[in-house]
Design goal:
about 650 residues; mainly alpha; Lysozyme; two-stranded antiparallel ribbon; about 60% helix; globular; disordered N terminus; disordered C terminus
Amino acid sequence: MFQMKWIAGVALAAASVLFAPATLAKKPAAFASDDEVFLALRDAARNGDANRAAELASRLGNYAIPSYVDYFRLRPRINTAGEQEIRDYLSRYEGSAIADRLRNDWLLELGRTRNWTLFDEQYPQFVLNDDNQVKCYALTSKALKGQDVVDDARGVLVNTQNYGEACALLIVTLVEAKQFTQDDVWTYVRMIGESGFANTLRRIASVTDASETALVQAFEKPDGILARGPGGNRASREVFILALGRSAKNDPSRAVSALVKAAEQLNEREREHAWAQIALQASMKLAPDAIVYWHRTNGARLSPDGYQWKARAALRAGEWKLVKSTVEAMPANLKNDAAWIYWLGRAHLAEGDQEEAKRLFGSIADQTNFYGQLALEELGRKVTVPPRAKAPTAEEIAPMAENAGFRRALKFFDLNMRFEGYREWNWELRKMDERQHLAAAEYARQKNVLDRMVNTSDRTKSELDFTQRFPTPFRDVMVAATERLSLDMAWVYGLIRQESRFIMNARSHVGASGLMQLMPATAQFVARKIGMGNFSQHQVNDIGTNITLGTNYLNMVLHDLEGSQALATAAYNAGPGRPRAWRSTLPRVVEGAIFAESIPFTETRDYVKKVLSNATYYAALFEDKPQSLKARLGSVAPKGFATSELP
């Protein structure tokens, strides 16, 4: 189990009470307050228990946040509630975050029931429009009316984990409308196979020219398909290719043997797709032969993961020509990502095209992220803290304290309802300019809601305040802990910023706790190693204890991995054994940035880049001089370590 997972936060006791006390209704002894009733109502709504939700909501007639009481009462009945009841709710709370959330819920139900007339009326009023399935339903509705939506559909159908029923319906609809060809269908079949969503495969089986039984067998029992071979028609050959990818997920070499044996029964295009299926799985296992398989894919149309892992395999192998051709073949949304702009610039640099490389680096050098920082260094400059914007005045901050959405957010944070709090906070930020973002961030600082301060300040592009973006709470404790271990304090703060965003009592969904998000077993292990007597698990959220245990653990993995911050950061997130295994697969010494980009766990890959980017800015703040992210990343050598006793 990972040392760190995403933060599922807990309450900030420091948030002040901003609402008048609710009138107390008579309640059973099980509930000590209206807040407890409200939390139970939220849980009943999440569980789809309409009767329980109605009963609990009836006790909260005078609760401080009636829009959410009414939402939690209505949400479990979204599929049975009358149209007028839903319209009344939307009208009553028009313009609010929770009304937009209910419209999202309703649109999903309208799409599911194919009520396109009402869907088309409501969809333009969905403000956030951030639900992929709603977008798929909207495109389906247009396609059913004869509109050409192919380009928009391809933009939406990039992430198979968000397909659900809606995006599968879109694929079926576009095939039936002859807007998608069988080439399109099989592209999405392979993408679904890569991601592992069998139900989605079943939903589009009817438009594949293959039986659902064959598709499911290729998905769930691929080796049986491989034993029979490709067959004589396109559908059976495509099923065989799907099975190759599924088999390679467990054993790439077995899939390679099957493909080599059957190669003459596939045409050139089919062989390219087959090799791509195997190459992707081999790349994600960091297999040294992955680059060989990618060379056999030529110009095959790949999935988003396929393009990115082909480029990563080329980076690991030092094949800059392949890096360049792969990035240039990526769809626009990937090609325009800062990561691939940077690596394309590096590929041009490797070929001697300095002008184009400089142009590419210059296009992202103003971004305050990992690849923006690296691009800046490629242009001969180091990472510095930008000039601080004029601090928000009391007059600018005052409206933030009066903002109803922020007041609701703080109430939710106090109730450990961070998801609802984030919704309310971010809804208000949509309406604000950069000066107001700085003022809102400063208000969050005053209320000691540091995660909102950081995230709000991070939104600004020209008005920058890095004291908001990179706070240093508990600095006296941190100085003592890091000096005792000769540990880089900038790195520790960079890690905490990513781990918990300074939510003091943060607890992840896997049980990691506190600022440094320590797993129970890790905390116990470190306490024993450093001789912390009488340690008990309830102490892990104590600030001093959490920092002491966290810095000691970080110091242990750093020494275990020969002082590499890149490897140790990965170890803190994914466990010490994994980065040792990952480095052992390297074909050569690589830059730390290449190691980070090719980490096979998406969460850990993102984590390492963000922590070291954070650390570079913290160092610039602490030392008041330019810093090098490249130096911090160092290089990673392909040699193993002795087995460690670390958990």
